[in-house]
């Protein structure tokens, strides 16, 4: 593997958790639910996956634990914002704080433990491609899942009746309800799907990316995933592009730190966050303040009238 | 059988006032179950978290000191939240305020600068916090950028800036290479209140913030405007209240108060600049603001309760070896319960028998 291929390989690794979490949040937001708890669900996914994989010595059980933890957190969020029609922004923040705290409690006994490396899956033929072969098609299972997720979600949202229903519920819940669509049920499923994705993204961090667990290891990735959904204007394909741009920014600033350009490392560490803000500014300015692209009912609590 | 939400025609005032209390009770019950599930005694935990700190004068003083930044920040946040602006970056505004104020403390260090240093530090801190808070407000007003995300990402930037300063140009040359600044001169240190141990006069600033906000909300046009735009945003727009000006103003007030809390913490408690100056006060204050129902007196009480739990958490870590993160998880739980309780005040649950 050349240096260039190695850098590409690490960019794919850095982008994958962002992409998985962003795709999940995208589905929830398309159904009209703003879940700012991605960071907390991801943290719970990371710790649960690590504990599962460590205790049962199986990556698969780890993945299952991570997805389950994310899904359960999302279900709790769903009960609060859909069942009780509570404020979504506040409840999302609460979910993040709860998830970060709870993950610290669960993970404390496992600090310092390490997992064995996860096997790579080389895809026949494709892995022989120049450059992309080693960077993309010789990765672990998560990378392929993330790419399949993008394709699957894009097809579901744009190509199926169920996807159309989900989008119409997000666009205008009152009209969707009057057409007889089960608004809260669809929203709950979309939220849980988002949680499972966030849990999977967290699992990737602790099972593949670091192979150990540390408090606060999500380091704001959940929030970047939320920003990516805005960046992508709620379109799955653009979430892929966005995730890879931010993954690349993260990896390149790490290389810049190693190269010691004389810039303080803290300035380079701030690059992904500043880049996210700048990207949001450019996109929002272009779309105008009306928030074009955002689902019409995004973030609004819904109490069906009967 | 299903459970449905039905909007209440006229939410009751007593229910609104009692909602946070009910939320706290439910949170304690759930936390007790969790602690019991961890194989510990919930009764012993309640004793250590809540009862013991209230019985011990030393702990009470520590609670007052922890409540100070929480109340000051939460009072600021209440302006934002009343205007439906989600400033979740108070942690960053706290840090930048501390940086602005500490700059003066370090610049005058070792000189015989007198009484003017401390007031000027506080003014600088408020300016720093307000400017930092104005960034997401400006981006929101000018470009329509979501203020939730920008204010949060700026927290990470502020943390890195502080880390850079403390490990770089602000490091104490005589400090054995520890990443911390020199200890502030007396002229740059908040004095303690006589007879109250370590408790500094920052506590009084928290009380002033509460009283001033009561007056602003109750007796000024700006306060009236805020209450209207929070309760009835459409009406506020028809009345011709400028939304852009309100957004910038509330973010500056909120950021300025967070910055003030930052310098109070550094000059009153830490007395030097360290890489980490806050155990998440800026985030806990969000919970304090909601638990206090955005009401100044409510925030004062809620700040005291949250500070009590933080101190209790530290004690529980030592006495019961319960992880410190349990207190953080509890904060999230409280916020979830408070928001649910609020929602249940305006809607009621109805059990519906299965329809044929």
What secondary-structure arrangement, pairings included, does this model have?
The complex is a heterodimer of chains A (306) and B (356).
Chain A: H1 3-30, H2 38-56, H3 59-83, H4 88-107, H5 132-135, H6 141-159, H7 161-171, H8 173-178, H9 183-209, H10 221-231, H11 236-259, H12 265-269, H13 271-287
Helix pairs in contact in A: 1-6, 1-9, 1-10, 1-11, 2-3, 2-4, 2-9, 2-10, 3-4, 3-9, 6-7, 6-11, 10-11, 10-13, 11-13
Chain B: E1 2-7, H1 13-37, H2 42-55, H3 57-82, H4 90-107, H5 117-143, H6 147-167, H7 202-219, H8 221-231, H9 233-238, H10 243-270, H11 281-291, H12 296-319, H13 325-346, E2 347-352
Antiparallel strand pairs in B: 1-2
Helix pairs in contact in B: 1-2, 1-13, 2-3, 2-12, 3-7, 3-10, 3-11, 3-12, 4-5, 4-6, 4-10, 4-11, 5-6, 5-10, 7-8, 7-12, 11-12, 11-13, 12-13
Kindly describe this structure.
The complex is a heterodimer of chains A (306) and B (356). Chain A has 306 residues and is mainly alpha-helical. Chain A has one domain (3-221). Chain A is built from 13 helices and no strands. In chain A, helix 1 packs antiparallel against helix 11 (236-259) and helix 3 packs antiparallel against helix 4. The longest helix of chain A has 28 residues, at 3-30. By secondary structure, chain B is mainly alpha-helical. Chain B has a domain at 69-297. In chain B, helix 1 runs antiparallel to helix 13 (325-346), helix 2 crosses helix 12 and helix 5 (117-143) packs antiparallel against helix 10. In chain B, 52% of the residues are buried.
């Amino acid at each position: 593997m050349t240096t260039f291929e190695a850098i590409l390989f690490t960019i794919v690794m850095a982008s994958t958790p962002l992409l998985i979490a962003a795709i999940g949040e995208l589905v929830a937001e398309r159904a009209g639910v703003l879940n700012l708890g991605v960071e907390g669900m991801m943290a719970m996914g990371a710790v649960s996956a690590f504990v599962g994989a460590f205790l049962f010595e199986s990556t698969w059980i780890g993945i299952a634990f991570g997805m389950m933890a994310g899904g359960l957190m999302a279900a709790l969020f769903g009960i609060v914002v859909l069942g009780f029609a509570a404020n979504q922004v506040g409840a999302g923040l609460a979910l993040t704080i709860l998830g970060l705290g709870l993950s610290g409690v669960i993970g404390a006994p496992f600090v310092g433990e390490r997992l064995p490396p996860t096997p790579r899956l080389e895809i026949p033929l494709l892995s022989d491609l120049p450059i992309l072969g080693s960077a993309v098609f010789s990765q672990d299972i998560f990378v392929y899942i993330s790419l399949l997720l993008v394709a699957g979600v894009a097809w579901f949202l744009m190509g199926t009746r169920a996807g159309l229903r989900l989008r119409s519920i997000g666009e205008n819940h009152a009209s969707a309800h009057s057409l007889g669509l089960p608004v809260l049920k669809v929203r709950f499923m979309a939220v849980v799907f988002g949680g499972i994705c966030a849990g999977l993204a967290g699992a990737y961090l602790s099972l593949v990316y670091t192979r150990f667990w540390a408090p606060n290891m999500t380091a704001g990735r959940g929030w970047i995933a939320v920003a990516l959904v805005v960046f992508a204007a709620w379109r799955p394909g653009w979430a892929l592009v966005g995730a890879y741009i931010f993954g690349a920014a993260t990896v390149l600033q790490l290389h810049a730190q190693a190269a010691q350009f004389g810039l303080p490392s803290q300035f380079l560490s701030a690059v992904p966050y500043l880049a996210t803000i700048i990207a949001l500014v450019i996109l929002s300015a272009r779309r105008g303040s009306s928030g074009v692209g955002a689902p019409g009912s995004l973030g609004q609590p819904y109490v069906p009238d009967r | 059988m299903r459970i449905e939400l039905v909007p209440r025609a006229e939410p009751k005032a007593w229910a609104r006032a009692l909602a946070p209390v009910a939320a706290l009770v439910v949170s304690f019950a759930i936390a007790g179950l969790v602690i019991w599930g961890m194989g510990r005694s919930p009764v012993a935990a309640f004793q250590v978290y809540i009862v013991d700190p209230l019985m011990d004068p030393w702990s009470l003083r520590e609670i007052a000191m922890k409540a100070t930044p929480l109340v000051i920040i939460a009072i600021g946040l209440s302006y934002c939240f009343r205007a439906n602006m989600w400033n979740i970056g108070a942690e960053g505004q706290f840090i930048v305020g501390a940086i602005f104020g500490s700059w003066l403390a370090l610049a005058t260090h070792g000189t015989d600068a007198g009484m003017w240093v401390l007031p000027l530090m506080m003014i600088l801190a408020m300016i720093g916090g307000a400017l930092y808070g104005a960034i997401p407000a400006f981006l929101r007003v000018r470009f329509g950028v979501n203020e939730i995300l920008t204010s949060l990402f700026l927290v990470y930037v502020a943390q890195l800036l502080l880390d850079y300063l403390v490990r770089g140009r602000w490091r104490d040359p005589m400090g054995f290479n520890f990443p911390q600044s020199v200890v502030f001169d007396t002229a740059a240190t908040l004095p303690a209140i006589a007879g109250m141990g370590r408790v500094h006069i920052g506590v009084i600033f928290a009380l002033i913030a509460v009283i001033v906000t009561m007056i602003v909300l109750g007796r000024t046009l700006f306060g009236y405007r805020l209450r209207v735009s929070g309760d009835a945003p459409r009406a506020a727009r028809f009345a011709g209240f400028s939304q852009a000006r309100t957004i910038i103003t509330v973010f500056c007030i909120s950021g300025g108060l967070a910055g003030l809390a930052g310098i109070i913490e550094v000059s009153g408690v830490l007395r030097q600049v360290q890489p980490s100056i806050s155990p998440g006060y800026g985030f806990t204050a969000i919970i304090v603001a909601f638990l206090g129902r955005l009401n100044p007196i409510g925030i004062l009480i809620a700040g005291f309760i949250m500070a009590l739990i933080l101190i209790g958490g530290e004690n529980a870590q030592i006495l019961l070896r319960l992880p410190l993160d349990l207190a953080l998880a509890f904060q999230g739980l409280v916020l979830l319960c408070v928001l649910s309780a609020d929602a249940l005040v305006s809607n009621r649950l109805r059990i519906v028998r299965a329809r044929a």
